[in-house]
Specification:
alpha+beta
Length: 98
Amino acid sequence: MIRVVLPGHLRALARVGPEIQLHVEGPVTQRSVLDALEAQYPMLRGTIRDHVTQERRPFLRFFACAEDYSLEPPDTPLPDAVASGAEPLLIIGAIAGG
């Protein structure tokens, strides 16, 4: 099982607790995790990535094992610790302003 931590506003939208567990078929990548997340929680479609381009929304970041994966290609494999469920994939709401 893959563990995913969502920012508060997306947890409220999906009506879930601080962490979600997902079953992902095949290689564990950003794309496969987000596909599984949107399949299990359809209300999140379009909130994390664009409906058409499937690109990450500008004010969301992806972290795995203390590394920023936000700018990595969507099919880049996530670390083994995330694939095994030892570490969660963090989806963090970025804060803009000054």
